[in-house]
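Pipeline run #58 for the internal structure catalog. This entry was flagged by the ingest filter as a single-chain record with no existing model, so it goes straight to prediction. Upstream metadata was stripped on purpose; only the residue string is passed forward. Reviewer on rotation: M.T. Logging verbosity set to normal.
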Amino acid sequence: MKKRLMALTMAVVVGLTTACSGGGSGKREETAEAMAEGQTQEGEVTEPVTIKVANYAILEQGYEEFWNGVKTDFEADNSNITIEWVTAPYGEIVNQVINMAGGGDRVDMIFGEIGWVPGLADAGLTIPVDEVLPADYLADFYPAILDSFQIDGKPYGLPMYVSPYVLYYNTELFEQAGLDPNSPPTTYDEMLEYGEKLSKLKDSNGNPVYAFGQTTASVPVSGSSINGMIFNFGGTLLAEDGALSIDNQGFRDAINMLKTLDEKGYNPQNAKLKDLRNLFALGQLAMYYDQSWGFNGIGSINPDAKAFTASAKPLSGGEGTGESILQAHCLMYVDNGEARKDACSRFTQYLVTSEVLDDYLANITPAYPAKNLWREERI
């Protein structure tokens, strides 16, 4: 089985829009009208059908309003299709899907992350997306991104949107440490210099400030984040034939940096991304790596965090240039018969459109489109 990793070089500082807004139901109505006209639709759903969609985000503050709005608006214009959410906390949703399948109750769609795809494919719980979605719809996805979901030459997940890892930093803590908030570090060496000053700070409650956060907890996303760090240093993980290849200087440099961060006490030990977001939101973490959509978690904990949150491109180290692993939230599909696959196709083509996602990506989950959403508007 061939599994690919994709790296993205960040050439500019990533700017984040931090204003809050509603779910954009007016634009979703425009999407429904376009679908009613028969654009890019296959497999008309003429009989009532219910699709089970596994989605951990329903339980997370900041996301539930969007997803429940999508369900309400979609069902209003597709009277034969009912969406049934299957949910569990982020760290438990995959096991929920697997356990349900073991009992003969398989979901139809899964909202998750790119790192989940190989395991679910191996378990027979996701199928190639071209078995669900029409070719002309898939043709609008950026090929390099869609290719990153390939197993044996076929994509087993559909990217909704993408993000590299970015550097978040607290401008107020920078100022307190005598650092220029408009000049974040660009290399790991600079980060360590900044960290020496930042680590001497205390928050408003007298708690120590961590200088730099890199998730190292035993969860899949931590592995992806560390992989991104290895690319920052110019390291590699796979050889051309897909075999593991870690005997290289960039890989060693990245692991040594993790050791240095630990020895200096700069990095909270065994922290998940949600732990780092919490510390950052509360002013106890000066810098950390996260996907761009991590800002939603920060803002949900502390709405005032937008006043001190800034972002910058990934750091470079050793002989590296700051490349980073590209992360994606994606949709995966289970084969429960043609009627349910057709309903999943219709729901996907409603969901992954500029009308539904542009407000979400700008104001709720800052990220980059995986699909040329605005092609029709540009023509």
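catalog note: Residues 161 and 369 are 5 Å apart (CA to CA).
catalog note: The chain has two domains: 24-163+327-378, 164-325.
status: ready for reviewer M.T.
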